[in-house]
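User: I'll paste a sequence; please echo it back and then give the predicted structure.

Assistant: Echoing your sequence first, then the prediction.
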Amino acid sequence: MTIGKGKRSQKPERLDGASRERAKGSSRRAPSASGKSRADLVPAAEALLEVGARAVAAHGGASVSPGGRIPLAPGVKYRRILLKLSGEALMGEQGYGIDRAVLAGIADEIIDVHSLGVEIALVIGGGNIFRGVAASTAGMDRASADYMGMLATVINSLALQDALESRGAKTRVLSAIEIARLAEPYIRRRAIRHLEKGRLVIFAAGTGNPFFTTDTAASLRAMEIGADIVMKATRVDGVYDKDPKKWKDARMFRRLSYLEVLTRHLAVMDSTAISLCQDNKLPILVFNMTRPGNIRRVVLGEPLGTLVVDERRKPRDGAVPASEENAHGQ
């Protein structure tokens, strides 16, 4: 059997100068791996820029910094706040549950303040559904009653999340009790990252431990995320020397120290929450939530409500000092 002759190896032809230029030109016009030439990619890049512009417009026209944080609007005094809402605030004039109209109004105000570039975290009570303290006085085991109260705060948190997201806001619910199908577990660094990305963060289930109130949870979470201030929303204008609904001569304080709140037993927050704020020099502002626009006014520095600070030191950066100490109400 004869074996066929193998093919001879061919040497590459040498190209003259003109041929080399033609080869370079063809390589520049060669399509990419996706089948598109570089010239075809220009419209795609312009489309991406247009998408980015629409995203900026969705944040009220504010430009987004390289780190993803929206710059603060002019006049805003706080970068990051923790807003404490009572469960009773959600039930409006009802005796129980959640008033959808009230919930919608709260959601609108929160989104309005968020559009200023303020990073907002929220803690909601559960008193509109279940109160652990009240149940324990009726004979229920205190720990069991408190855990039931934590579940009530989860219900309120999910309701507020729904109201916010139905208006286009990005939110995350972080629960101190692990409920994987409903909320993310509370992780401090994750919460901070959500805030930096412009998301509204709702802390549910209090601290996750019985015998601690949601006021204490608000103080604790505020310190963990580095909030500038704790804003407690109430149904009255601020802190009074006695119940303004019962006494017409009740006087409102414009500014108080932590020690005055504790020694006078003023109804601001429970003593554990006040002590935590005192130890970490975290200001507390008590204001009226029932008046529309009050959250925005407070964030812009208007002297509303009662400010609780350490009188021996200046408030944290961003805190608004009152012009008068212990002034009468508005």
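The radius of gyration is 29 Å. The first strand starts at residue 80 and ends at 85.
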